[in-house]
Amino acid sequence: MAEGETVTPPVMDDDELTLIDDHEEVVSEGGRRVRRRGIYLLPNLLTTGAMFAGFFAVISGMSGDFHNSCVAILVAMFLDGLDGRVARLTNTQSAFGAEYDSLSDMLAFGVAPALICFSWALSELGKLGWTAAFIYVACAALRLARFNVQQGTTDKRFFVGLASPSAAGLVVFMVWSFDAYDVQITALVSIFAAALTVLSGILMVINLRYYSFKDLDFRNRVPFFVILAMILIIVIVALNPPVVLFTMAIIYAFSGPAMAIYVRRKRKQEQGTGGYSSAADNNPLSK
Description:
With 287 residues, the protein is mainly alpha-helical. The chain has 11 helices and 4 strands. Strands 1-2 form a two-stranded antiparallel sheet. Helix 3 (66-89) runs antiparallel to helix 6.
């Protein structure tokens, strides 16, 4: 550069001056595709809360505080169930929210339960322990990926495979129940924990139907006994949260295989009596 020569700095537009680009996605409104900037605050704030609860559960579990870690997963379940319903009730669904929710679920219901169970009992098994934990994490990732690509193509009344929050409940409520009664970690307990962890992972990826409860409408009137039933459930859970929640998780986890066995037996009975049923009617995943 010659002496006395000045250099003009390059001109940058407003987008280049921002450190963080605003999110933009294409949505359909009134049959037209329009671009919208920004994200919805309320549902994504609830999703962030679920993610924080999952992260706190990991920290507590690694520190040996299994009570608080399991309670944190329970809080994450509540927030995870709430963010989707809030988004639907307020018409604030978005592609960003769906992806963000999946990432939050992977931490809270994929990584956290595996690490909690590993810190509690699986570490006693060495390589077998961390292998069982990894199988659960991998199955949770596969379950969430499959759920994302199947949205809008399956019956919303049912999940194909055990949902990740339910699988997480099966693992962490086991830890909570055993820890509440000061069960000593023996080889037998560790093997049982590993078997249940692997089973929870497998149930997430096999083709079994589970009732999703998504067809429940909270905006309409319900019979009076429904409120009484909800109060009774809350009271029963409050009597002994770890054991009651673990029992509920076991019942729900095995409702899928029980439903599949029922459908198979019903099909055999219809075939034996000469009754006609189409392939779509017999397929438990087609309804």
